[in-house]
Design a protein that fits this description.
three-stranded antiparallel beta sheet, alpha/beta, 306 residues, Rossmann fold, 45% helix, six-stranded mixed beta sheet
């Protein structure tokens, strides 16, 4: 297990902790000197059963822990552990062309694609880097590569149906490749109905192979087809099967959620590698809990003396 910091410059504030110790004991000594000037102060303390001059180590340690964990949080403490995860980095390429408005999936193919993608992301272990693009006539980067699953899910939810027709798979693969260019093991998960009418499948396959990218394709549509804005739209399995087969990927039909989830486990190809876990949010929550404990303890220890 190893530790690292996203913002190590804030570790400078650790030097404030010894200062807190000095201030604590100085203020304790100063309170004693001031209290001796008032004869009734000690009498009130005895009557109320309060030790105003206690060193109060519990309160001191609470304050020190609060300061320490707060500094760790703002410094971006990360822990590096070995976990079972995927050796691949992925880009989810989601087709949002007009044909994805077909109703053979409810409420439409695009909504089903997004939910399928979200289910996949939620099943991912720690440490898997994933990006998101949408594509129709052109492609757009919705989210660059990240290990944060919540950010990826948020990007998927924001994808809307495209305003223009056309499905340019070739450009989508180029855009995805740009996101993956620094990764060792690259894979694209393509969610589409296969209605590709811009660019050739051959060029798409050649480009993917030239950049060592595996494409897993998921056919979003039924054989009967569904009603889109322009008429009946059927799924084109042949193009999706081709890009998967000739790039070393797998082809899936998104008809059975259980079988699709089982297929995703094949895509991941688990291996053991070192992953990074950001502890900042957990440290902030723990610091807030300590604040509450300190507040309650202070009220119990020093009730109203009048």
């Amino acid at each position: 297990m190893m530790f690292s910091f996203l913002r190590p410059q804030y570790l400078f504030f650790l030097f404030a902790i010894p200062l807190l110790l000095m201030v604590h004991f100085f203020s304790l000594s100063n309170r004693k000197k001031i209290a001796l000037k008032f004869a009734n102060f000690d009498a009130i303390a005895r009557i109320r059963g309060i030790d105003f001059f206690s060193k109060n180590f519990f309160d001191l340690f609470l304050s020190l822990f609060i300061a320490f964990f707060l500094i760790m949080a703002i410094s971006g403490l990360n822990v590096h552990v070995s976990k079972e995860t995927s050796s691949f980095s992925f880009v989810l390429a989601i087709d949002n062309s007009q044909s994805m408005d077909a109703d053979d999936f409810l409420p439409n193919r695009l909504s089903a694609s997004k939910q399928t993608a979200i289910d996949f992301v939620n099943e991912l272990p720690f440490g898997v880097r994933m990006g998101v693009i949408s594509f129709a006539g052109t492609s757009y980067i919705e989210q660059d590569l990240t290990e944060d699953k919540e950010i990826v899910v948020g990007a998927i939810k924001q994808i809307e149906l495209g305003s223009f027709g056309g499905t340019n798979l070739y450009e989508a693969i180029i855009t995805s490749s740009n996101l993956l260019k620094k990764e060792d093991h690259k894979a694209i998960i393509l969610l589409s109905d296969g209605q590709i009418n811009i660019g050739s499948i051959e060029n798409t396959i050649d480009y993917a192979n030239m950049n060592d990218i595996i494409i897993h394709s998921i056919a979003m549509g039924t054989e009967e087809g569904g009603v889109a804005g322009y008429g009946i739209s059927k799924v084109d399995e042949s193009s999706l099967k081709s890009v998967a087969y000739y790039t070393g990927g797998n082809f899936f039909r998104a008809q059975d959620k259980e079988s699709l989830s089982q297929s995703f486990s094949e895509i991941l190809k688990f291996t053991t590698k070192r992953v990074s876990i950001d502890l900042s949010n957990y440290l902030v929550i723990f610091t807030l809990i300590l604040f509450v404990i300190k507040f309650l303890f202070s009220n119990m220890r020093y009730p109203n003396i009048l």
